[in-house]
Amino acid sequence: MEVFIAGGTGFIGRHLAKYLLRRGFRVKVLVRRPERALVISEGVIPSYGNPIIPGDWLHECAKADVIINLVGANIFARWTSKYKELIYESRILTTKHIVSVLTKGQILLNASAIGFYGTDRGEEEITEESAPGKDFLAKVCKSWEETAFSAKDKGVRVCTLRLGIVLGRDGGALSKMLLPFKLGLGGPIGHGKQWFPWIHIEDVCAAVTFLIKKDVSGPFNLVAPEIVRNKEFIQTLARVLRRPALLPVPPKALELIFGELVDILVGGVKARPKRLLEAGYIFSFPELFPALQNLFKKRLLRR
């Protein structure tokens, strides 16, 4: 079975390409520039092109059995008006291009985010049936998914991946947290009571593979079953790293750096992987402490 990954040179894409390759899939990855091909695993086939612009790379999409679309500008940057346009267009335009060449029988797994539900929904338990939020990122995710689901009219099986905060040492949010901890400056964001929907990178790869093989469609929350708050996450990370976590990060300080993005950082939803569990997926890392222990190869500490 041939898989084409758009966005395959990023943090999730690199892990996913290697994971699929080891399980017997033929994997092609969209690469913008030849030097970026250096980050992909041996055995993965590069296909060159800009995902925002139609090109020869779309022929590879048309031939693949499975298309995984992970393309999207990094949201962890200051949200100027121009950058918000890039966040939106990088997701919507790429997805439109991909959908335009798909035909009956193909499978599209399209990235989305837990941001679909907005922020700060209190104690409400969020499942795939919950209503979308109303903030900027929620509207982006809603449009992104609608664009992907338009492929259903062509007979394509479509799953959208509402990704939580993906934990891995070599990328994503966790890698950005390590320096403050090493300096003894780690701490929760604000009051720390906001929910922190997380998932281990290994479970992201395994869940995507599961969805390729399972005859299911629709949205799926890719988050771990154990729901924690930001403060609990930070305390657990500090325990694994054996570093202090005493200094809360003031939201005002983050606002100076990230602007409107601060609402995402100090918000969070109590999301559950309801549909993934119902489909029969078994998490390798359902609980936070073993997940972080695995990533940092630390000896289990006494509770």
Automatic annotation (TrEMBL):
InterPro entries attached to this UniProt entry: DUF1731, Epimerase_deHydtase, NAD(P)-bd_dom_sf, SDR39U1
Residues of the NAD-dependent epimerase/dehydratase domain: 3-217
DUF1731 domain boundaries: 249-295
Domain of life: Bacteria
Gene3D superfamilies in the cross-refs: NAD(P)-binding Rossmann-like Domain
Pfam families reported in the protein's UniProt record: DUF1731, Epimerase
Family: Belongs to the NAD(P)-dependent epimerase/dehydratase family. SDR39U1 subfamily.
Protein name from the UniProt record: NAD-dependent epimerase/dehydratase
Source organism per UniProt: Thermodesulfatator indicus (strain DSM 15286 / JCM 11887 / CIR29812)
